[in-house]
Specification:
With 301 residues, the chain is α+β, with helices and mostly antiparallel strands. The chain is 30% helix and 37% strand. α3 packs across α6.
């Protein structure tokens, strides 16, 4: 039988050779997306108003839309919602008082192996208001519908269990075009499309907030007056938008808690978006006081 003796030098050489031949690539962040929930008081109010079916359809549509939108940012490996529910249920049991919390094998709240972040979403406001008018000359009943919906999205760091971000989103369909708000009473397909648009818009806003929190948009390249950024189709960026660029300074520490509040930011330019590609976007610098690669860029609202 042949025996091989691995010296420390040979091991170090092998590791070094492996590192040279296999460049290290940054791994995608992993996120678990919880099912969209409806707060009990909102559900009770919707039941009383007879609009619980619409609320249920919107929340179910948002479920699928959130997964689709976040997956298509191409920034995350998305963890299955059904698997996430099982893990969270186990953690809920671990915190019920029936489990020894000092046990190192006990599940800890929002600490999941293999998942870096968790997104939870709850619908916290919902009103479905309808106004109906009968047009005798046309022989039709036309309904004007306005839906107001609010949702709270929270992002948790599973490593520490800390809440990283909590954001409140509001949508009022009164601001949409008339053709989206007027449907005939016999047109179920138009109503379904209306609900789908609502769910899509809310999912868009939440997905963009998740990306902006965990992956702030950055400048990829600067060529003369042209600026390329790492946001593309499906990431909430559109032709005609204006984005502001910031140079990052020293880290800011809260004097009371010692917690890092991020870095100091100084505005150094603005970019007008001219073209949106699948993975990147290109714009012209309207202001440029030293725009450089990797600087943070945010949309001007």
């Amino acid at each position: 039988m042949n025996r091989f003796i691995y010296s420390p030098f040979l091991i170090a050489f092998s590791i070094g050779l492996s590192a040279i031949s296999s460049p290290v690539l940054a791994a995608k962040k992993t996120i678990g997306i919880g099912a969209v929930e409806v707060t009990p008081s909102i559900l009770q109010s919707a039941n009383a108003a007879g609009s619980s079916d619409v609320l249920s359809r919107i929340s179910q549509a948002m479920d699928g839309q959130l997964i689709d939108k976040i997956h298509n940012t191409r920034k995350f490996d998305v963890f299955s919602r059904s698997d996430l529910a099982k893990v969270l249920k186990e953690q809920e049991f671990a915190n019920s008082g029936n489990v020894d919390v000092s046990d190192p094998n006990a599940a800890k709240a929002f600490m999941l192996g293999g998942i870096q972040y968790i997104l939870t979403t709850s619908i916290s406001d919902f009103q479905d208001h309808k106004e109906t008018a009968y047009f005798e000359g046309l022989g039709e009943t036309i309904s004007k519908r306005t839906i107001r919906m609010g949702a709270v999205a929270k992002i948790y760091d599973t490593t520490t269990g800390k809440l990283l971000e909590s954001a409140n989103f509001q949508i009022d369909t009164g601001g949409h075009e008339e053709k989206n708000r007027f449907v005939t009473s016999s047109s179920g397909s138009s109503s379904d499309k209306f609900i789908q648009q609502l769910a899509t818009e809310m999912a868009d806003r939440i997905a963009n907030r998740v990306v902006d929190t965990l992956y702030p948009a950055r400048v990829l390249a600067v060529t003369g007056n042209q600026v390329t950024i790492n946001r593309g189709d499906g990431a909430g960026i559109e032709v005609g938008q204006v984005w502001e660029i910031f140079a990052l300074g020293e880290e800011l520490i809260d004097p009371d808690t010692g917690e890092s509040l991020g870095q100091e930011e100084s505005s150094i330019g603005r970019v007008h978006i001219k073209r949106v590609n699948p993975k990147t976007s290109i714009g012209d610098a309207e202001e440029n006081y030293g725009i450089q690669r990797l600087q943070v860029i945010r949309r001007v609202l």
